[in-house]
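Pipeline run #58 for the internal structure catalog. This entry was flagged by the ingest filter as a single-chain record with no existing model, so it goes straight to prediction. Upstream metadata was stripped on purpose; only the residue string is passed forward. Reviewer on rotation: M.T. Logging verbosity set to normal.
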Amino acid sequence: MTEFLHRHDVLIIGAGLGGLRACLEVAGKGLDCGVISKVHPLRSHSVAAQGGVNAALGNAPGGENDNWEAHAFDTVKGSDYLCDQDAVEILCRNAPSAVYEMEHFGTVFSRDENGKIAQRPFGGAGFPRTCYAADRTGHNLLHTLYERLQEHEVTFYEEYFVTSLVIGKDRCSGCTALRIMDGTVHGFSSGSTLIATGGFGRIYSRSTNALINTGETEYHAFRAGVALRDMEFVQFHPTSLHGTNILISEAARGEGGYLLNSEGDRFMRAYAPDAMELAPRDVVARAMTREIEDGRGIGDGYLHLDLRHLGKSLIRERLPGIRLICMDFAGIDPVREPVPVQPAQHYSMGGIAVDTRGSTSLPGLYAAGECSCISVHGANRLGGNSLLETLVFGKLVADTIIDDNPGTLPRDDRVVHEAVSREETRMNAILSGDKGEDVHRIQSDLQETMFHHFGIFRNEHSMKQGLELIGILEERFSRASISYRGRIYNQALVRVLELEGMIILARVLAQSALARTESRGSHTRTDHPGRDDRNFLVHSEARMKEGSIEIGYTPVRLTSYPPKERSY
């Protein structure tokens, strides 16, 4: 058993930008750090972020008067006033230094004619403030941090799947994880544990998220008594490639791309006459869905993103990845043909409830990035703010951990050993179970249920139907089994473990959405079309109480920006 016990001062679950940025800070202070990831760190979902990272640098023409206050206002307005404004101020004040720091670490940003970091316009922004590396910004940032970490003694546990958090003496003492390569269960004993695993978008059938984004660590935190905040707020990106749902970056619209319906009309003028295609994502996604539902869609339900007028030179320079995606996966060259696009689930505004320091209610447990809810995105995230959040709060939560953990915190190996024994028994039970329901069919039915009943437009009748279906899926899952009983690279076992948490997260989302009887940001109810600040200028917080899920509320923290009507 001792060979499967690993001890670290700090344990980081997730090797995307948030996790690696925190790791760099922690390791730089001499703390022993271990990083657990379902995949190789450079395959983390941060690598798929395309468009850019926001910071008020004032480099672009028309952006000379930009500042952090303007960035904060745009973020608050974009959130439909549900974000915590003190957290947004931290985010926007630290944005320029975070971008310059990554530049100094070695990130190769695109440049303007003066050699400064180039900036492009993004949706919902009053100034062009999105810094970018062509359309592979996340890729460049992630490689930079990973290379930087090679200078430090950090232990990476690649292809490990976390199966539980370990709780001892009223604090988080680490976790257990399945080593996918050989099926062994390992224990990780730590003084501090950071969850930085990204979102849970794969509970939806149409999603731009990687297959690894299943939310099991959010589920483990929830099961350990930590609240999940604002889970009803799910962002649908307007432009995913029709038929595959591969992301077509907002950078395409930032560079001047048009959205066209079947009549060849730039329909956004009817929904956001000033911002047009650069309205916030929730506004554009709703407009596209309306166009399709009203019979102005193309084919079996998509619209066109037209880049042809931008010219081959600009597309090759600033959107090379998008062009390759279109050519490789749709057989379309955007230089010559419009791109078929449709909205798809993209981002989870809700997540593990943390304070502005990244601390959860459970001592020893922290969270950062998309899996957390600080909240800097509220009811709708602006493009370019997600990469920023990982960099800013990845560093700040590391500072919190360093303050809380001088490297002398006691580690409770006994409770970790006990947890490993329980998980080993659970794995054996799954592998030896009688033949039952097919796991993949249950997962597919869950994803379709979420897309059709908790998608862009919602109403009470449909959501109640969806909740009933989730209950049926829970019952079906209790009878699920897998046919492959081996231990080595048993991906079927991993799917079972993922699905367990996905169903619970789906129920939390569903109950939170049904309880919020208003429309705000990405949460659009056709039976309650107005925003209700009197009753719902609050964060939802879901907790597990005696086996059932209870939804409570906490006030939104306001500072400088009183709520007002949102228009573009």
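catalog note: The chain is about 35% helix and 20% strand.
catalog note: The chain has a mean pLDDT of 96.
status: ready for reviewer M.T.
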